[in-house]
Amino acid sequence: MNASEPRHPFLQGLSKHRGAPPTVVVIFGASGDLTARKLVPAIFNLGIDNLLPGDFHLIGFGRKPIEDEKFRSLLDEAIGEFSRRPLDGEVWGRVRRHISYQSGGYDELAAFKVMAEKIDALERELGRDLQRVFYISTPPSVFEPVIQNLGKSGLADKHQGTKLGSKVIIEKPFGHDLESARHLNATLQSVFSEPQIYRIDHYLGKETVQDLLVQRFANSIFEPMWNRQHVESVQITVAEELGVGSRGGYYDQSGALRDMIQNHTMQLVALTAMEPPVSLDPESIRDEKVKVLKAIQPLNPDPEKGDVVRARYADGLFQGAKVPGYLEEAGIPADSSTETYAALKLSINNWRWKGVPFYIRSGKRMARRASEIAVQFRRPPGILFSEGSKYDVAPNTMVISIQPDEGVTLVLNSKVPGLETRTQPVKMHFRYATTYGSNTPEAYERLILDAIVGDSTLFIRGDETEASWRLCTPLLEDWNKRGNEGLASYAAGSWGPPEAERLLAENGHLWRRAGP
Ligand code: NDP
Ligand code: BG6
Question: Do residues 336 and 327 make contact, with C-beta atoms less than 8 angstroms apart?
Fold first, then answer.
């Protein structure tokens, strides 16, 4: 690379606004929860940081008729309620005046043609072309009609082959099994080319998830040990304190495997286990992720002896207060067999990881909100401090804490001061908040900006999502047949069902108490 070439966007972090072309973002489903809670606060914060393109326009689209000014005031409220920084009238005022709303059906081609004319007119008025970024933030039932109408109306093709070619960002869930994911990929790829497609997994936008690559590949002490010779096991936990809340209707059709494991947790597995990419360009990273996902062995679904435990929360105590069980939550049918917790033991059949179990779990209403990756290294030979002694040394463990209390902890052994030689595990901490301050950008800020500037590194490629569904779909089919058979139970506010220990027991491992 010569000095005049731009650095790769991943390396530039968030300072890449100079590359942001004039853009109009169209949000489908703009009256919804995600727009209010995440998308608009993210756009506002990008504005505060002067990262939006100089020419930035936002159009909301939805079935409900909403006046432009009413829409803008709904967004003001959303920022007031959900932004990490308070509403700044001056900055927001500059963005706000370029916001409008258009109503129409998602399956109504005429409405998309009106949208196309509206943007053409805007370009004529500005005297310049605009990149179109379409953000599909509707329920998944209408993803396909939106995509097809973007194609039929000509919106998808506009400025194709130039720097201002259209892009589409699509929310999760990306299909509900392998077949539907393939179908959705086929629909997307019939209208857009793969480089125009940005499949969201907001975990990839989290600072700590990006830091995983830096920890692995920018530090020479870890990578030589990151393999079966030195690593005994890996545990990945994505635990939530919250129950299903008001999302019962959606969640009961989904469950922990579809909602959290297939996407967020498998992405953490892929980033932890992948080989070093040849460069930081999106395709090199995604190639390595796909390879490792494909190397994971098919899972045995047997509830007694297999590689998986699924469970549902019963009522329990959370922070001293009684909370209801899943079946008592609003919108959950009495005969539901949906899991709110899933734990899997993965075997990665490749040169680096053969024989190293990857234990992963995710659940709602667990004891603590804690997402972490814990890499447990093999113990030293028990000659000096273990063998023949009543004291044993603990394994070294590197814990990457994704959230909350973001950081990295290294568990080492040290000598306890005193006249006898006694070892004790001690922790070395790096905490983001202490080193960098606590007001880090939200995942959606990073992801929206990346899509605008055309960096797809932190988005999921079509074959990645299919590789992950290929693993999960046989489990879903098995659970569908079994119904409640084999569905374990755990008390709300606990660390999950006791049955999950079975997955680790044969190797003499235990689940960690995740979190600080
Ligand atoms: P909403 O349920 O709030 O729906 C968004 C908008 O879509 C609604 O305002 C409504 O607008 C329209 N809509 C609702 N139901 C239907 C329907 N049955 N048919 C057609 N249109 C409908 O969704 P969210 O904003 O919560 O989520 C949007 C997307 O983001 C989903 O794919 C979701 O899975 C994903 N997501 C959401 C998260 C969240 O925290 N909310 C987190 C992660 C992902 P109108 O009536 O005006 O057309
Ligand atoms: C979403 C799931 O994708 O991720 C939710 O649909 C879950 O059920 C959420 O609560 C968790 O995200 P975060 O960023 O709060 O860990």
Answer: yes
If asked whether residues 222 and 322 sit together in one domain, one would say yes
Q: What CATH number is attached to the domain comprising 98?
A: 3.40.50.720
In a domain, 330, yes or no: yes
**Residue 359 dihedral angles phi and psi, to the nearest 5°:** -95, 125
Of 183, 264, 429, 509, catalytic: 264
| pLDDT score of 1 more than 80 | no
372 found inside a domain: yes
463's tokens: 């074959």
In three-state secondary structure terms, 248 is: helix
Share of the chain above pLDDT 70, in %: 95
- Whether this model's pTM surpasses 0.90: yes
The predicted pLDDT at position 17 comes to 53
229 CA distance to ligand 2 middle (Å)? 34
Q: Are 123 and 215 part of one and the same domain?
A: no
| Residue whose CB lies within 8 A of the most ligand 1 atoms, among 64, 106, 138, for a mutation test | 138
Quick check: is 215 in a domain? yes
What is the DSSP code string of 147-197? HHHHHHTSTTTTTTTSTT--EEEEPSP--SSHHHHHHHHHHHHHHS-GGGE
Dihedral of CA 329/330/336/340: which sign?
Answer: negative
Residues 291 and 324: their CA atoms lie apart, in Å, by 42
Res. 388: pLDDT tops 90? no
Mutate which of 201, 258, 264 for ligand 2? The one with the most ligand atoms within 8 Å of its CB, which is 264
Find the 426 Cα to ligand 2 centroid distance in Å. Answer: 32
317 lies in the same domain as 368: yes
Q: Are residues 225 and 318 in the same domain?
A: yes
Residues 134 and 218 in one domain: no
Q: Which of 122, 149, 171 is the last residue of a domain?
A: 171
224-260 pLDDT, tens digit each: 999 999 999 999 999 999 999 888 989 999 999 999 9
Residue 299 phi, psi (nearest 5): -95, 140
Active site residue 264: yes
**DSSP per-residue letters across 323-343:** E--GGGSTT--TT----SEEE
Give residue 86's domain range: 9-171
Q: Is residue 184 part of a domain?
A: no
Ligand closest to 35 (CA) is: 1
Task: Quote the CA–CA distance of 150 and 129 in Å, as a whole number.
Answer: 18
How many structural domains does the chain have? 2
Give the distance (Å) from ligand 1 centre to CA of residue 33: 7
Name the strand (E) or helix (H) holding 314: strand 308-314
